[in-house]
Amino acid sequence: MAIQTIQTTPIDGQRPGTSGLRKKVGVFQQAHYLENFVQSVFDTLGDLSGKTLVLGGDGRFHNRAAIRTILKMAAANGVARVLVGRGGILSTPAVSCVIRKYEAMGGIILSASHNPGGPDGDFGIKYNIGNGGPAPEAVTEAIYQRTTTITSYRISDAPDLDIDHGGRSYVEQMQVEVIDPVDDYAQLMEQLFDFDAIRKLFAGGFTMRFDAMHAVAGPYAKAIIEGRLGAPEGTVINCVPREDFGGGHPDPNPVNAAELIELMARDDAPDFGAASDGDADRNMIVGRKFDVTPSDSLAILAANAQVAPGYRGGIAGIARSMPTSRAADRVAAALGIPCYETPTGWKYFGTLLDAGLATLCGEESYGTGSNHVREKDGVWAVLFWLNLLAVKGQSVQQIVEEHWQRFGRNYYSRHDYEGIDAHAAKVLMDDLRVKLAAMQGVEMNHYTVDFADDFEYTDPVDGSKAAQQGIRIVMTDGSRIVYRLSGTGTEGATLRVYLERYEADPEQHHIPTQQALAALIAIADSVASIAYNTGRSNPTVIT
Ligand code: G6P
Ligand code: ZN
């Protein structure tokens, strides 16, 4: 074994996006591409001697190859120890859990989350810091800057390590420990939720379907829901992670998880349905013939948090991303706790969680989580719902409708225009920015604009700022239209339009969502000239 120094030159475009560096597999397969980025991470972290790193991914195509390379590079860069998931598998929340439990310096996660996988799909890499959460902007920016000046990287020429069996071995001086991907995470879940109550629920004939979408949640859901909680075999479907996610799009929304939605719409549907994404940090909650929006799910878990042993003492605060509906704000007001509004991206919750200001966090993009780790957590959200269903003894629909009766309903929808021309998308956003100042007081379709701005955020803990985080048009009745460009796509640009309308009157709680939002949808299109700018008369995805 010897450590080699390989000459390289900077490769363009290695700036991490909303959640790490994501590119087509082919891009990552280029000579030196992954190596340049990984060396830039190590260079940014500084002295690695005596340090432990966690390493794992969602099992998508190129996962194994990347793990092999990173292990050899970590050894060559003086890392003392790496904890790697067996088979290279660790869900994103599990990496966060393991970093925290073993007080590692940080971790490297290989995933492109909900983006499709396979040789023609996407791959991704991100670095998480010692609190278990995504690296903050200052760190990702430093990594990026390093990629622009890199001249060489270090790698061991050691043979490939066996990562398919537990146990310890060495690469150069570095100890590699292959860990069970599920154990530490399952133990944490057992502390947070009332497993006895959930076991009784299943023993009493409660039925559920968890669609792991051929992605990494499979082993976790199977071991916990079928294993520890005694749900019948077959409760968790599509549970073996595949390199191409079975050719599907592992994003748990009603469009991509159509198989589950169809099942839940039947008369003989299970009591409860759930799905999660490629790396198991997202979740979708479905009742019998009844979908739950992620924004409502956050509000409902917050309103009922004390049912779970881990939150029995109450929650300190709630945090949601700006485009997420304001249903959670109403719960926070009723509980007398703060509700923080952050830019899109889980990383913005980190400081609030670390400072103990927020306990639960959520995003409209099917992400929910808490201070138990520093990532959103799909299986956690599903277990929280199971705990709630077990304690309440009501159906999903009853729980949601009672919540609306108490707090009012925030009708909510997101319209995506995927794969549009990047320049056209920029023009659309620039035009909107120009219009903002003149919008106050304007009347449209029975709505009056209260204010319009481009969301800016100052972190209340560390004072860091983020500008241009989404254009919002807020009406005098609290209804909102928000526009932003996706930070996670890999092809062209994706325009997201978020629509929200508050309705206090329970008599008005059962209008089909698109109908309830029709006037706002028309305003959104005309203000931004979406059809004109994008050439699309309809969104590609509506959630
Ligand atoms: C990832 C992040 C989320 C974020 C989402 C936004 O999933 O982990 O925290 O909400 O991306 O994606 P977008 O495509 O809207 O930028
Ligand atoms: Zn994800």
Describe this structure in words.
Helices cover 32% and strands 25% of the residues. The longest helix is centred in the C-terminal third of the chain and has 15 residues, at 378-392. The model has no long low-confidence stretch (mean pLDDT 96). The chain has 543 residues and is an alpha/beta fold. It contains 18 helices and 27 strands. Helix 8 (217-228) links the parallel strand 10 and strand 11 (236-237). The protein folds into three domains: 3-181, Alpha-D-Glucose-1,6-Bisphosphate, Chain A, domain 3 (3-Layer(aba) Sandwich); 185-407, 3-Layer(aba) Sandwich (Alpha-D-Glucose-1,6-Bisphosphate, Chain A, domain 3); 409-542, TATA-Binding Protein (2-Layer Sandwich). The protein starts with a strand and ends with a strand. The strands form six sheets. It has a seven-stranded mixed sheet, sandwiched between helices. Strands 20-21-24-25-26-19-27 form a seven-stranded antiparallel sheet.
- Distinct small-molecule ligands in the complex: 6-O-phosphono-alpha-D-glucopyranose, zinc ion
CATH topology of the largest domain: Alpha-D-Glucose-1,6-Bisphosphate, Chain A, domain 3
Based on DSSP secondary structure assignment, what is the total number of beta strands? 27
Number of distinct helices:
18
Gap between N and C termini, in Å?
52 Å
Q: Class by helix and strand content?
A: alpha/beta
